[in-house]
Amino acid sequence: MAKFLAGQRLRLTLPLTAIALVLSACGNDDEVNRGSIVTDTAITTLTKSQIDAAMTAAGASVLTGAAKCDVTLREVVYNTAGPDGKMYQVSSAVLVPGGTGCAGPYSVVSYNRGTEVVKARTMASATDPETGLLMGMLAAQGYVVVATDYLGFAKSNHEYHPYLHAESQASTTIDAVIAANAVLSKLGVGTSGKYFLTGYSQGGHASMATQKVLEASPALGVKVTAAGHMSGPYNLSGAFVAGLSFLPSGTGGSTVFTPYLTGGYQKIYRNLYSATTDLYKAPYATGIENLLPGTLSFNQLFTTGKLPVALGDLLTPKAIGDVSDTNSGLRKALDANTLLGWKPAAPVLLCGGSKDPVVLFAVNTTVSAQSITSLGGTVSVVDVDPFVPAGTPLDSYHGTAVPPLCLKSVRDFFNTK
Fold first, then answer.
1. Distances (CA, A) of 18 to 12, 62, 97, 180
2. Which domains, from first to last, does the chain contain?
3. In this structure, how many other beta carbons lie within 10 angstroms of the beta carbon of residue 13?
4. Are 172 and 203 contacting, i.e. CB atoms less than 8 angstroms apart?
5. Do 349 and 382 contact (CB within 8 A), yes or no?
6. Residue 86, helix vs strand vs coil
């Protein structure tokens, strides 16, 4: 995080309840404040009955419970720093509870979404399933929810998405909360002073990275009350090494995740390869570093032949060797974004499913918990696998079955803090 904080006047001494969070850049004259608002737009307001109906239709009402609040969905476009230290715009969703019987002040939850490959997708959409789940599970229960679209998506003017890059994920998340609190202040919405972090899959990695940065930077003045990280690749290097044992098939989705990661890391670190053919076989190497995110869905990446299903059909021997070679540019980048070896100050819950074929539970959740415990940190682990419906296909396990179960566990954890 050093490059993002260098040259900044970090005078965030007021708590979230003051709603006065501003990061001021003091570099070039043309720089703008991090977290400053570009646009703030009310998208829609859903009543409690509408939210209940939507959760029932989605089969999630047994987990979310009845809505206690109406929820207004807002799109906030804000300024943040990119990996190069320059300022860019990013869009986000802010879910604001309200209505009869739902008086504040409200606690704030920062949520980071899972991997997305379609560049146009935004969380500031009432029809987005993930946003809908956040409405029912958190916002309708009295939490303000802030969900960034990340750099490179929706209304962001950043040219690419720095996938699984811990520093920029944290910076973007923190600035989303700064912008959201300015919006809440304008609206006269009071907050309780409690600030929670959560995220799923890529978002679990992002939320843990954000917690690590905030707790290492007390000058920011943002104290994390608790965090619930879900199915994230916290042990990033370990996950890639473990994935080699699944060749030639690879772990679920690995033919997408791997070039997604290397494409961004090459732009940031500039030392992963001399040419994409160093890591990827023909015909996939052509155009692969700029393939993601784009206009194609996950399945379309396979059906159009842009990517193979089996990881062994994609990786060159050099790529396989570079994952294990601690001196390679690829492995150094993985190590730099691995989130082990730190002690959280706030209590942490790690949630996932032990049969997850995408983000391996034993390699990531278990190892991360062991790392935190060994350093004297407080961590709880929840395995939701016993609650996954019998017969759930493995290709639906990570993306469909686990998220609502883990989010329910995280909400219950937050409710005790």
1. 10, 36, 18, 13
2. 2-235+343-415 (3.40.50.1820), 244-336 (1.10.260)
3. 12
4. no
5. yes
6. coil
Distance CA 194, CA 334 (A): 32
pLDDT tens digits, residue range 286-330?
999 999 999 999 999 999 999 999 999 999 999 999 999 999 999
Ranges assigned E (strand) in 238-359: 348-352
Residues in the chain: 417
For all residues of the chain together, what is the average pLDDT?
92
For the chain, how long is the longest CA-to-CA vector? 62
Half-sphere exposure of 257 toward its Cβ, with a 13 Å CA cutoff?
A: 22
Per residue, the 3-state secondary structure of 89-148, as one string, reads EEEEEEEEEECCCCCCCEEEEEEECCCCCECCCCCCCCCCHHHHHHHHHCHHHCEEEEEE
- Count Cβ neighbours within 10 Å for each residue of 213-245 and write b for 16 or more, e otherwise: bbbebeebbbebbbbbbbbbbbbbbbbbebbbe
pTM over 0.70: yes
Identify whether the C-beta of residue 172 lies closer than 8 Å to the C-beta of residue 201.
Answer: no
pLDDT at 58 over 80: yes
Has residue 174 got a pLDDT over 60? yes
- Strands in 136-272 per DSSP E: 143-148, 191-200, 226-230
